[in-house]
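Single-chain item
Fold in token form
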Amino acid sequence: MFESIVAIARWALCLVSPVVTLRFLRWLPVWIPFLPVAGTWVMELGIEREFYFLQSYLEFGVILALLAWWSARGKSRTSLRLFGLPLLALPAMVLARDHFWHSAFLMFLLVGGGAVYQYFYEGMDYAIRRRVITWAALTWTSLGCMIKLYDAFLLGGIILYQRGGSIWGSNHVGGILFLLLPLVRSKWVSALALVYLLLNFSRGIYVGLIVYAVAWILWVDPRRAIRIIGTIAAAILMLLLLLPSGMTKPIADFAVERIAYQSFDMRDVTVASILDRALSDKRLEIFDAALVVAKRSHWVGVGPGGFYWALEEAGIPMGYSNAHNLYLTALAEGGILYTLAFVLLLASLLMRAYRVDRRVFAGLVSWCVYGLFSGQLYEATRFVTAGDYYCLLLVFAYVAWKAEHGDPARRGRGARRGTPSVKAT
């Protein structure tokens, strides 16, 4: 019965997603998590891994439509730079042998980033007034909670400590929420997203949350940051107190095991054991493998999304689709020129965000640090999508829009007092 319901829901999503997305394209930030899953029926055809991208035909159509829209109007310098940035990874396509079409598809999505950026920028006034970004953050959080329920049902375990993060996985939802949280205009949605991230039991997310809190204390609003931290801690404590005693201990043990990776006994956990856990982490082996891949490609790269195949060619039996590090993945797949240009882009965005909106700056710093552990620009396994990149471009567009038009909150207050507000471009 349950499997039938899931199958019906999946087919309904496949049929409805294209219509809804294209009809309400101005709500694109909300539809991002659904773009690669609209064609999940394609997977039933038994296609090879290289052609998994075929199920992302809706995302292909959206980017194609935006590129057509972009080509027919005046283009901003930033959008042209974003259009050209992925082209620095073109030399890597020479080494994309068994995964050429897979890499070509991802290259197309990344190149379309220029059009996505300008579309977000020109529609930012609408997005702010309709709280589109708040709804997007709520969508990601709700999907994560639903996946937790789904995993708990299948595994017969406790709901709270299922690590299901979203349709694409916890590593993606962590980075995306770090980007979106500063732009959320609802205290309840922000609190829900933060509690959800804490209950993801991801070490990378925990590091990002610590950086986010420190950034708020240093650069945004120390008193408010401390109040928020206290409120969330009280909410989690209340939640644990309301749960039956038989559930709280497994949850606490699971959190300890995720950090210390050893006995569930709290008495065995020391600073030394946590450091030992960090130094023996599997990620360090993946980082080494990424450098091997980059060296084998002579620092040119193996093509977007080609990390999995590159590991096979290098005889490294890991089976990972990325380096679990945003920058090493870019180096291994896009090459050194693309990586340097991308880092310079991030640096310029950080400097501008620091001047324009310190909240956004705090989120970007968290995202950049999170990228050292888990953050990515695209997904290239079961689903093939550049949704993470679109969320980064959304923040980029907001910073540029605010630098041009000023604080939307003050403009709103000015409009209520009779002061004319500036319309978006």
Remarks:
- Residues 132-155 form the longest helix (24 residues).
- Residues 262-267, 414-425 have pLDDT under 50 and may be disordered.
- The chain has 21 helices and two strands.
